[in-house]
Amino acid sequence: METILGLCIGIGLSAACGFRVFVPLLVMSVASLVGWFEPMKGFEWLAIPSVCIALAVATVCEIAAYYVPWVDNILDTVATPAAMVAGTLTTMAVSSGEMSQFASWAAAIIVGGGTAGAVQMSTVAVRGLSTATTGGLANPVVSTGEWMGALLLSILSFLVPVLVVIVAVIALIWAVRWIRIKKQQNLNHSVS
């Protein structure tokens, strides 16, 4: 049961990494500093105050950079692999001791990195669509939704992890369908 709960928390945090790389790590660091979360062996660095401060600075810089026109699109090229690494690390940091080291890392890479990558790719598609249809004017709205989603997902991952996984899967399915509909509408408008 502890393994499943750890994976649910990891999936939620990984999905949050797909929105913003540093927000889930900052939430984990704050949670570990106040005693709400104990990171797995090897991830004790999350509970160091200077690491928390560094993650806070990185989070503010990342959020601010996504409000700069065209920089947000450039950041997505760096954020995609970074989100996958962060998703892997967050999942590994909450994995249970019940699994072997190999199984923990395999699950973290596949589940954590995969979830973060899928969410990040959907945000890239949404931002690309926003840039194409509004010339980037709506991108700050998209950015606000992303960092708020990352914060909310990160917090809820610790409070109600199973619900977060269900909501994340539903949201991902909805986002993929929405993107497909918008692409089809744009294709139909281009043909007309």
Question: How would you describe this structure in keywords?
Answer:
single chain; 192 residues; mainly alpha; 7 helices; globular; membrane; transmembrane helix; DUF4126; DUF4126 family protein
Task: Walk me through this protein's architecture.
The protein has 192 residues and is mostly helical. It has one domain. It is 82% helix and 0% strand. The chain contains seven helices and no strands. Helix 1 packs parallel to helix 5 and helix 4 runs antiparallel to helix 5. The longest helix has 34 residues. It is globular and about 60 Å long. It starts with a helix and ends with a helix. The model has no long low-confidence stretch (mean pLDDT 88).
What is the secondary structure topology, with strand pairs?
Elements: H1 2-19, H2 22-33, H3 49-65, H4 71-94, H5 101-134, H6 139-159, H7 161-191
Helix pairs in contact: 1-2, 1-4, 1-5, 1-6, 1-7, 2-3, 2-6, 4-5, 5-6, 5-7, 6-7
Organism: Acinetobacter wanghuae
Pfam family, one: DUF4126
Protein name: DUF4126 family protein
